[in-house]
Specification:
430 residues, alpha/beta, seven-stranded mixed sheet, 14 helices, 29% helix, binds zinc ion
C-alpha cells in the first residue's frame, strides 16, 4: 500500500446536519480541494458576530486550497467564494461560470479576482481527478462530481432531483463508488414531488380562472425549467410573459447552450420590462446587455398594465416591487409564489415591504397560492439514485435528518458524520 493512502481524508466543514451552506474538504498529504463553499441559508438572520465567525471560518478552509469545485450557482453552495484568496482556482460547469459573470454586473465580479474555469469533463488537481456529471436541479447547469484519488472513488451528488425535465440524467452517474455524499433535503417530507409539467398545468389553471387580472409570479431567474413552464403556460392562455433585463440575459445564455429555451429575441409572447433601479445598475456596467439585442417591439410599457391587465404575466421578485408599485396601483393583480415557501419567512426589508404592500391590496390579502415543486429529490428518487450508484458508503449531507438515512437505505452502510470531524477514507469508523 502506498503510504499516502493512509492520509486520505474528508471533512464536512458544514452541511452534515443542515440544508445548504455545504463545504466539504478532500485532502491527501499533497493536496487539498474543497467541494462547494456555501453560505448558510440563515446567514442574514445571524448577528454580526456570528456572521463574522462564518466568514473567518471560510477563510481558514480556503487557505492553501488547491482548487474549489462548485456544484451549482445557489448561494448555499457558492456564497462564501468571495472569501477565497486572489487567484484561487475554481472549477464549475460553463453554465455556472456564466451565471457568475452575469451576477458580477450587480456586485463583485468574482471571475476577475479568482481563476475560474469551466470544466467540460475531467480535470486533474494534483492527487485528485475530478469529473463532472450534469444533474437535474432548480439551478441551471447543476452538476455532481466524482473524485478519484489513490483508487478511491467519491461521488458528491450536489443538489439533485429526478422530477424535473432532465431527471433521467441520474442514470449517467458512476456506479459502485466507495462514497456517495447524498443530499437529503426532502427526507422530512414524505410526499412525492410534482413534475414541472404539472406546474405548467397549474399555471394555466390559475391564469384562466383569474382572466381579468394581471399576474405576478415570484420565481427565480435562474430556475430555467420553471421559466420554461411559465412561458408555456402563457402561450397556452394567450398571455405575454414579461421579464426583467437580468432574466432576459440569463435566458439568452441558456439559449446559446440549449436552443429550445425561449428568449425575447427568438420567441413570441415574451417581452422585457425595465425596472428603473435594476436597469440603471445594469447600464452602469454594460449598456449592451440591456438594450443591445432587443427591438422596440420587445420592450413592454409598464403603463399598459393598468389598461390591459389580462394581457400580461410579470416575472416578479420582491426587490422589484419598488419600481412596479406605481404601475400596479390601479391594476387588478394576482400574485403567485413559485419559490420555496421559506423565503417568505426571511426577515429582509424587501420581504417586509412586499408583505406591507399585500396588506394594501385587498385582492391579495387571501392566502397566496403556491405553484412550486422542490429542486430536491423526494424519498423515492433518493432511493432510485442509491440503487443506481450502489455505493459502499453513503454520507448524508444537505439534510436536517441524517439519522433517517439508515432506515431509508437498509442494505447500505451509512456514515453519519458531524461537521468538522476528519474521516479516514481507507478505514472509516462507522
Ligand atoms: Zn443547496
Ligand atoms: Zn441548490
Amino acid at each position: 500500500m502506498n503510504s499516502n493512502q493512509n492520509d486520505i481524508k474528508f471533512i464536512i466543514h458544514r452541511g452534515s446536519h443542515q440544508f445548504g451552506g455545504n463545504c466539504v474538504e478532500l485532502a491527501t498529504r499533497n493536496a487539498r480541494i474543497l467541494i462547494d463553499c456555501g453560505l448558510p441559508l440563515d446567514y442574514d438572520e445571524q448577528d454580526v458576530e456570528t456572521q463574522n465567525e462564518i466568514r473567518e471560518n471560510a477563510q481558514k478552509w480556503l487557505q492553501n486550497c488547491d482548487a474549489i469545485f462548485l456544484s451549482h450557482y445557489h448561494a448555499d453552495h457558492y456564497g462564501l467564494l468571495n472569501e477565497a484568496p486572489k487567484g484561487t482556482k475554481v472549477y464549475a460547469t460553463k453554465e455556472t461560470v456564466e451565471l457568475m459573470k452575469i451576477s458580477g454586473v450587480f456586485g463583485e465580479d468574482l471571475t476577475e479576482r479568482l481563476d475560474i474555469q469551466s470544466i467540460e469533463n475531467t480535470v486533474i488537481v494534483k492527487d485528485f481527478r475530478g469529473t463532472k456529471f450534469d444533474v437535474d436541479h432548480s439551478a441551471f447547469g447543476a452538476c455532481a462530481f466524482l473524485f478519484e484519488v489513490y483508487g478511491k472513488r467519491i461521488l458528491y451528488s450536489g443538489d439533485i432531483r429526478l422530477h424535473g425535465k432532465k431527471g433521467v440524467l441520474y442514470k449517467n452517474l458512476p456506479q459502485h463508488v466507495d462514497y456517495l455524499f447524498l443530499e437529503g433535503t426532502n427526507l422530512g417530507r414524505g410526499v412525492r414531488q410534482k413534475t414541472e409539467t404539472a406546474i405548467e398545468n397549474e399555471f394555466v389553471k390559475r391564469f384562466s380562472s383569474h382572466q381579468d387580472n394581471a399576474h405576478l409570479v415570484w420565481c427565480s431567474s435562474q430556475n430555467i425549467d420553471r421559466l420554461v413552464a411559465l412561458y408555456r403556460a402563457c402561450l397556452r392562455t394567450g398571455r405575454t410573459l414579461c421579464i426583467d433585463p437580468y432574466t432576459a440575459y440569463v435566458l439568452e445564455f441558456a439559449y446559446s447552450v440549449h436552443p429550445t429555451i425561449p428568449t425575447a429575441k427568438t420567441h413570441p409572447n415574451l417581452m422585457i420590462y425595465y425596472p428603473h433601479r435594476l436597469t440603471t445598475m445594469m447600464m452602469e456596467r454594460d449598456k449592451t446587455i440591456i438594450y443591445g439585442p432587443y427591438s422596440k417591439e420587445k420592450k413592454m410599457d409598464l403603463a399598459d398594465l393598468a389598461t390591459n391587465p389580462s394581457k400580461y404575466v410579470l416575472l416578479f421578485r420582491p426587490k422589484l416591487l419598488g419600481d412596479l408599485k406605481k404601475y400596479l396601483a390601479d391594476t387588478k393583480v394576482c400574485l403567485t409564489n413559485s419559490i420555496w415557501a421559506q423565503y417568505w419567512e426571511q426577515d429582509k426589508p424587501e420581504i417586509n415591504r412586499l408583505k406591507a404592500w399585500i396588506e394594501e391590496k385587498p385582492e391579495l390579502r387571501q392566502k397566496l397560492p403556491d405553484i412550486h415543486t422542490s429542486g430536491h429529490a423526494d424519498v423515492a428518487s433518493l432511493q432510485k439514485i442509491v440503487e443506481h450508484v450502489q455505493p459502499k458508503y453513503i454520507v448524508p449531507i444537505h439534510t436536517e435528518m441524517p439519522e433517517k438515512y439508515k432506515m431509508l437505505f437498509p442494505s447500505y452502510t451509512v456514515l453519519n458524520v458531524i461537521d468538522e470531524t476528519p474521516i479516514e477514507l481507507i478505514n472509516p469508523k462507522e
